[in-house]
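ok so dumb question maybe but i'm new to this and my supervisor (M.) told me to 'just get the structure for Sugar-phosphate isomerase, RpiB/LacA/LacB family' and walked off. so i did the thing. is this what she meant?? sequence i used:
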Amino acid sequence: MKIVIGSDHAGYRLKASVVEYVESLGHEVIDVGSHDDTPVDFPDIAKQMAGKVTSGEAARGLMVCGTGVGASIAANKIRGIRAAVCHDIHSAHQCVEHDDVNVMCIGAQIVGPWLANDLIKAYLEAEFSTSEEFRRRVEKLHAMENDG
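this is what came out, is it supposed to look like this??
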């Protein structure tokens, strides 16, 4: 799977280990920055990351910022993106299984590299449920997005 990964300056250091781990799982990585710890605006990176997902260039996205919250807010502004902040294993897989999340956001000030790896593994291994109830709900999300 091709995965796009982005971070702001607060997530830069953790992003390096995230990229390495995702590649070790056999996935191809598109790194949209940040490429150092110079302050950047997370919405700019989130927009680049989300664009790779919505264009189909990447199957899923990962964003790393201080808390994951700002990145999630920014990514969710892009039509076609369903981003979630995940700091526990259950949320990391269930957000995909039940809500068809295509961008996971994690906070570098909240989790360390080991937990980040566990979250990423759960997220990337998860598949959207074939259950009618979850598909119906995600269709309602699409309708809400299109209605404004």
